[in-house]
Amino acid sequence: MAAAQLELRQVTKRFGGVAALDGVSFSVPPGQIFGIIGPNGAGKTTLLNCISGVYRLDGGDVLWQGASIAGRAPHRVAALGIGRTFQVVKPFASMTVRENAAVGALFGSAEAHLPPRQAFERADEVLELVGLAGKAALPVTALTIPDRKRLEVARAVATRPRLLLLDEVMAGLNPVEVDEALEMVRAVHATGVTIVLIEHVMRVIVGVCDRALVLHYGRVLAEGEPRTVLKDRRVIEAYLGERYARQQGG
Amino acid sequence: MAEPLLSVRGLTAGFGAGPVLFGIDLEVAQGELVALIGANGAGKSTLLGALSGLVRLTAGTVILAGRDLTNARPEAMVRAGIAHVPQGRRLFGTVSVERNLLLGAYLRRDGEVRADLERVLGYFPALSDKLRREAANLSGGEQQMVAIGRGLMARPKLLMIDELSLGLAPKVVERLIEVVREINKGGTALLLVEQDVLVALEAADRGYVLESGRVVLSGSSERLRDDPGVRKAYLGV
Q: Which residues contact A184 (CB under 8 A, 6 or more apart)?
């Protein structure tokens, strides 16, 4: 098996008495698109927060290229080359689209941290990549929801990540916009970035992911090739109810 | 077929920049119990929001008992006969159970509010000796009873319940479903949003399946129970 770029070992995170994540382990080799799904409240965003340093772990370890990064501050994790987006996008409202993207290039991974002029060149590149080049000069407040999601990806890509964590960048998009967003993910992936993405839209999981992992109540319910995982009885149970799964299973 | 109680045509609605629902057609007949199912983010709660005046339509119509209620305000919806039991109950936690129930009748000026309170307590006898308690101190199942009871206190023609079983133990859900059926037998039409597909389809006469803001399947509950399209709407395969 190829060496993992990202590996989680028995990651546990509690809030009060509740284990939001309970011994989650998986690994992602470089170049993969790895999907994480699960019903609401399964712990998906908590998982991204544990990888990107927003939360401290209560147990287990996160390894980046074989070395532990658990406990590092978010900006240090970003500097290693792990970029992320947030489910609720919060661009800098007083700035243009281009300026927002440039921020990622100014304060990104070690390879980014560009001086201002190059940061703006980098911003132009990534806006081209996500399909926002034509709107670079607009104030960010003029963007539609789908475009704000694109900008969120652009800001993360501008940090020059080697691994990109995407938190529901397709949520709330219509089918046509989902197709466009899929193209964007493929385009970013084609630049050599490993991708871990959280999605509710199953078409996305089947459409772009090499592997998928299903979280349920903070535990790994199933992991494998997306189509196989989505036909797993335990997964049907988690999404449609236990009795429905039993009826389907015959 | 007789004129439906609720008739929704081409309903398109959403928040901010983009629609969440695209051209929804849906009907509920007098006295019918209809299930609305679909995965997270399919648009179920948004649809209930649009039917209770909380979410604006950008296209389409909502007709209740022959009256055009398209983009009517929430209080007008309640007055016209649509009551909404929101996801997560949304009770007034520091207020007594009795006050919570009576608030459901806030718009009513008739003299039968007390009688209806008795009727609600008939459906939910467990609440009878808890009327003075603060709503937040009740169990999850009891809170759901208060939320449904509050909806009934508006004396609706159509009662919409969002996520009846959310966070509740199977036994409690069974009991609530029984009561929902009783309420329905009493003549109130119901639109039931429910995460557990079989719970919904066993309770309902008919169902609609939403996926990404569109109705992808509809039909009798028996038909939907055996339709592989339901699973596909949730899991894509």
A: A129, A130, A131, A150, A153
Range B210-231 burial, b when 16+ CB lie within 10 A, else e: bbbbbbebbeebeebbeeeebb
Q: For B16, name the nearest residue in chain A, comparing CA atoms only.
A: A145
Domain with A193, as residue range(s), is 1-81+162-250
Interface of B with A in 23-52 (CB under 8 A): 39-41
* Residue B143: other Cβ atoms inside 10 A: 22
pLDDT tens digits along B32-90: 999 999 988 889 999 999 999 999 999 999 999 999 999 999 999 999 999 999 998 99
- Report CB contact under 8 Å: A231, B234: no
Assign a CATH topology to domain B6-235: Rossmann fold (3.40.50)
**Cβ distance of A241 and B195 shorter than 8 Å:** yes
In the structure, what pLDDT confidence band is assigned to residue A112 with cuts at 50, 70 and 90? low
Whether residues A224 and A104 share a domain: the answer is no
- B205 and A CB contact within 8 Å: no
